[in-house]
Amino acid sequence: MATKVRKSPLERLADAVGIVPKYLDQTGKEWRKTSAESRAALLAAMGVEAADEFAAESAVRALRAAERAELIPPVRVIEVSDETATRHLAARLASPPNAEARWQLTLTLESGETSTAEGPWPRGMRADLAIPWPDDPPLGYHDLALTVTIGGRERTAEQRLILVPAHCVRPSAKLSSGRAFGLVANLYTVRSDRNWGVGDFTDLKQLVQWTGEIGGAFVGVNPLHALANQGQDISPYSPVSRLFRNPLYIDVEAVPELHVAPNVAARIDHPEFEGELSALREDPHVRYEQVMALKMPILEELHRVFIEREQSAGSARAKAYDEFVRAEDPELTRFATFVAIAEAHKSWNWREWPAALQDASGDAVRQFQREQQTCIDLHRWIQFELDRQLGTVADVARKSRLPIGLYQDLAIGTSPTGADTWAQPELFIQRASIGAPPDPYSATGQNWGLPPIDPRALRADRYRYFIRLVRSGFRHAGALRIDHVMGLFRLFWIPEGKTGKEGAYVQYPADDLLGILALESVRHDALVVGEDLGTVPKEVPPALEQWGVLSSKVLYFEREKRGFKPAERFAPLALATANTHDMATLAGFWEGRDIEQRARVGLIDGDAALDEARKTRDEEKHALLARLAREEILPAADEPNDNAALRGAIHEFLCRTPAALVGLALDDLAGEVDAVNLPGVGPDKHPSWKRKMSMTIDEMRASDEVHKALRCGTRGAG
Questions:
Q1: Per the omega criterion (within 30 degrees of 0), is the bond before 236 cis?
Q2: Which helix (H) or strand (E) holds 544?
Q3: Do 110 and 143 belong to one domain?
Q4: DSSP readout, 658-710?
Q5: Are 19 and 55 in a shared domain?
Q6: Are both 62 and 94 inside the same structural domain?
Q7: Strands 405-410 and 218-221
Q8: Is 435 in contact with 484 (CB distance < 8 Å)?
Q9: What residues does 663 pair with on adjacent strands?
Q10: Is residue 274 part of a domain?
Q11: Considering the entire predicted model, what is its pTM?
Q12: Cβ neighbours, 10 Å, residue 612
């Protein structure tokens, strides 16, 4: 019989806060253990003292004592269809009552209705007491208030009770055939003859209309989160806030106030201004700062018109704005304050601001708000207009008969120096970053530079931030992609100043978070797609399937020993695509452009490795042609005469799979060769997130080459 090894205080402390002791690496064969040094470093980042075993033991005792003293948990998520889920509240007392004790429980429904129950607490009872709920509440967010009276003294506690459905909305509920296709675009790259050098929400309306014409069900976009739009702060996956949107995407000429501001309209029509716009449209790259330098002064003037004409008259638009602010506050005003301070101090890094302004709840910030009310209101109004324009896109999607409509993207994290971390510093760990462990492509792992959320703080805050995130992502959308969905289960934390070799996984309350996701999915009648690429723990796929979350299936990775998978073997509950924003486009894959780029920036070391990469790519191309021939999409395993026909054949293959959704990248329809992002490479070596499309939307709609690439068989296109 094996001897059970007693864990050290440090190990028990790490277990208590969710630090995973070991994980299976990407090979699926080797276990990597979390070192004592990594445990101590991550505990220190969490604010838990564990410099030695004595300190760790003291910290363990403190955690256990805090748990025992907790009358009821601050939040509880229950799946209502789970017959094993108790309909009682488990309450406990640190010491058993030796006198007469009573409890009273008040349930306040989300609708505002209340009901109360009460009863005796048995004398001397030390274990949890099961207190029945006073009512049978519906799905939603409710509040329980418990009062325990012992010998005339009261103890009170509150709980957010979240009742959730068994799963997210399934594709069959949105699609009559259960299978559909759509277009996937990086909105900022989209060209048109009318935009201001970057794709905007009017361009998105055109994409939606085109998708309806070709029988598509959705248009997917990159994260629309707020960015600084300057310098290196342009990645849609490293936003200053995930709660609010990027003013970059406003169509200034669609703002209603422009129609009653002839002086502003004249400024836009001025030859010099039009010349600047033409230069930005023709530029092969998105010039974020220059675009915003033209948009913001116009928006400031239109905001003044809004105040003078709409608010002073109490118009319907002014009332809609007031309702928007009420619904979005206090987060909206905090975000607008952050942007106003960032502009005033010419820094989007709050750690560079005067010390007094770094405290979002401090007196100095309140004083700033009083002095800069108009500026702060400008940024609230911009978010209001962004929301209105995106809502118009959703309306066009409905009129164009897209069963799903917009398919939005929720990034995995937020900037360590942005609005979310400034407004809610207690939620974020500042002395660690999330990333990925070492793998064959990176011996030291990947550090994404994004601060992790402390799972204990998230629970103590009753999941409010996560709920706001999900609601923001679902707003005006029929589907939501969760970037790195494994982050709902665990995230790889890297201590400050260390590499991925010294990182470790930290667990998150997956069932609670997935339950909330399912509740918001049902409320918004929207699908959920989980980006589950990379190192995927074995418990993730069955959990996603159980909760009705679509998996991400990328052609490049769908392989077997004999080559690419047959179409019939793709998962049904999935979104199938040829690639992602981090991968080579189809044209680039075929030309090997991604290989040459990786060699140029040093990601492929030496001629021998470069030759091997080229050889492997040739083998992959032959294997893909063989699969297309076996599926009888191509007459033989020979390369077609033109690349557009080949891209069309690949799209036809994807559309033959049983995957519920197929996403056709706008880049692949247009034959773009360069990907929009080269992961792990700085802007000094590669212009990620800047490359535009080679054609305008109108040119694509009229292009024979695009129509050759746009093949989707029985799903509607072609």
A1: no
A2: helix 540-546
A3: yes
A4: S-SEEEEEHHHHHT--S-S--TT--TTT--TTTBPPSSBHHHHHH-HHHHHH-
A5: yes
A6: no
A7: parallel
A8: no
A9: 182, 577
A10: no
A11: 0.94
A12: 12
Number of domains in the chain: 2
Asked if 98 and 132 sit in the same domain, the reply is yes
Q: What is the spatial distance between Cα 208 and Cα 213, in angstroms, rounded to a whole number?
A: 9
Q: Is residue 16 part of a domain?
A: yes
User: Considering Cα of 527, then 528, then 531, then 535, what sign does the dihedral take?
Assistant: negative
CB 557, CB 624: distance < 8 Å: no
Written as six digits, the tokens of 250 are: 């406003």
The reply to whether 104 and 30 lie within a common domain is no
Report the 10 Å Cβ neighbour count for 176.
8
Q: What angle do CA 53, 55, 58 make, to 5 degrees?
A: 110
- How far apart, in Å, are the Cα atoms of 401 and each of 342, 404, 408, 664? 42, 9, 18, 18
DSSP string computed for 11-79: HHHHHHHTB-SEEE-TTSS-EEEPPHHHHHHHHHHTT---SSHHHHHHHHHHHHHHHHH-SS-SEEEEE
d(CA 167, CA 241) in angstroms, rounded, equals 28
Tell me the per-residue pLDDT of 83-96, one tens digit each, with 9 for 90 and over: 545 677 877 776 66
Q: Please report, for the domain that includes residue 143, its CATH number.
A: 2.60.40
CB 148 within 8 Å of CB 103: yes
Domain limits for position 95? 82-164
Residue 597 amino acid letter: Q
Domain match, 105 and 151 both: yes
Q: What is the pLDDT of residues 257-286, one digit of tens each?
A: 999 999 999 999 999 999 999 999 999 999
Q: How far apart are CA 195 and CA 207, in angstroms?
A: 14
**Calpha distance 524→478 (Å, rounded):** 7
Distance CA 696, CA 698 (A): 5
HSE-up of residue 372 (Cα within 13 Å, Cβ side): 22
> Can you tell me which residue has the tokens 């692949």?
668
Let me know if residue 132 belongs to a domain: yes
Query: What DSSP line would sit under 486-542, residue for residue?
Result: GGGTEEEEEETT--GGG-EEEE--HHHHHHHHHHHHHHHT-EEEE---SS--TTHHH
Count other C-beta atoms under 10 Å from residue 617's C-beta.
Answer: 17
Of 518, 492, 506, 671, the residue nearest 584 (C-alpha):
671
Contacts of 713 (CB under 8 A, 6+ apart): 652, 655, 656
Which has the closest alpha carbon to 505: 484, 523, 519? 484
CA distance 407 to 397: 11
pLDDT tens figures, 158-213? 999 999 999 999 999 999 888 999 999 999 999 999 999 999 999 999 999 999 99
Domain end among 123, 143, 164: 164
Does a structural domain hold residue 158? yes
pLDDT digits 0-9 by tens, 564-616: 999 999 999 999 999 999 999 999 999 999 999 999 988 888 999 999 999 99
The reply to whether 88 and 58 lie within a common domain is no
The two tokens of residue 467 are 């709920």
Other C-beta atoms lying within 10 Å of the C-beta of residue 35: 12
Q: Note whether 62 and 92 are same-domain residues.
A: no
Nearest to 677 by CA among 448, 506, 507, 392: 448
For residue 501, the model assigns a pLDDT of 84
- Over residues 357-371, the pLDDT tens digits come to 999 999 999 999 999
Contact between 280 and 197 under an 8 Å Cβ cutoff? The reply is yes
**106, 134, 164: which is the final residue of a domain?**
164
% helix / strand / coil in the chain, to the nearest 5?
45, 20, 35
